[in-house]
């Protein structure tokens, strides 16, 4: 099953906090608060949310006055995103397209977001290169993904999918997980200097995610595109 097919099956379940996107709802506020803390005032700025899914993160930025473009290869995800944005009274430019289509149109943005999507792509180098190409000089590149460690394989795949049922079985492929050093190097090769990486750890007792210093499983961070 392709990555797009995996997410097509969620349909309107994207906005059900008790459904298949349960884990995404758990981390959405945490990751948004972190991103905002690195950006400051975002009103009037432009963002492209790559792999936006049903629009959970896109909507949070739109509420802050950001001009948001959300793209995803899953047509059902985009349909769910558009439907929910309309109900919420938010104006978001959602498109069922690949990154290259934006590049071909000469589009660029103040902020690029790749959250919960880099670990789902077939060609990471190409995805990093193309997403970086959309970012204006001095712009922020925001990312969140999963480390390639045995601990991550146990917690993010076995526990999350088979025991805790946070996500559907088969959602993640350990072979696509990314070491922070690998991501940092790829971004540097494309003109983006990573400024910070933080961990996101699950507190089992309180059943919630928290920012931490451990990047063994989930990690989040940002970089800035250097002026050329």
Outline the structure in words.
By secondary structure, the chain is of the alpha/beta class. Helices cover 38% and strands 25% of the residues. The chain is built from 8 helices and 8 strands, in the order ααβαβαβαβαβααβββ. Strands 3-2-1-4-5-8-6-7 form an 8-stranded mixed beta sheet. A hairpin with a 4-residue loop joins strand 6 (192-203) and strand 7 (208-212). Helix 2 runs parallel beside helix 3. The chain is globular and about 45 Å long. The termini are far apart. The mean pLDDT is 90.
Count of discrete alpha- or pi-helical segments spanning 4 or more residues: 8
Q: How does the overall form come out from the CA principal axes?
A: globular
**Mean pLDDT, nearest integer?**
90
C-alpha end-to-end distance: 41 Å
Biggest sheet statistics: 8 strands, mixed
Short précis:
This protein has 228 residues and is of the alpha/beta class. 38% of the residues lie in helices and 25% in strands.
Keywords:
228 residues; alpha/beta; 8-stranded mixed sheet; 8 helices
């Amino acid at each position: 099953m392709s990555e797009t097919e995996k997410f097509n099956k969620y349909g309107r379940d994207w906005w059900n906090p008790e459904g298949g996107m349960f884990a995404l709802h758990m981390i959405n506020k945490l990751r948004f608060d972190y991103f905002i803390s690195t950006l400051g005032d975002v009103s009037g700025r432009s963002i492209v949310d790559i792999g936006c899914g049903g629009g959970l993160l896109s909507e949070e930025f739109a509420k802050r006055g950001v001009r948001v473009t959300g793209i995803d290869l899953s047509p059902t995800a985009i349909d769910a995103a558009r439907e929910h944005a309309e109900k919420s009274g938010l104006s978001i430019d959602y498109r069922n397209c690949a990154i290259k289509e934006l590049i071909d149109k000469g589009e660029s943005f103040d902020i690029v977001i790749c959250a919960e999507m880099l670990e789902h792509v077939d060609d990471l180098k190409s995805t990093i290169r193309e997403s970086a190409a959309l970012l204006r000089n001095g712009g922020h590149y925001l990312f969140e993904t999963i480390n390639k460690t045995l601990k991550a394989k146990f917690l993010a795949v076995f526990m999350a999918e088979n025991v805790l049922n946070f996500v559907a079985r088969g959602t993640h492929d350990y072979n696509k997980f990314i070491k922070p050093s690998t991501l940092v190097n790829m971004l540097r090769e494309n003109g983006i200097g990573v400024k910070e990486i933080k961990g996101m750890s699950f507190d089992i007792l309180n059943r919630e995610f928290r920012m931490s210093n451990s990047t063994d499983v989930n990690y989040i961070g940002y970089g800035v595109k250097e002026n050329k």
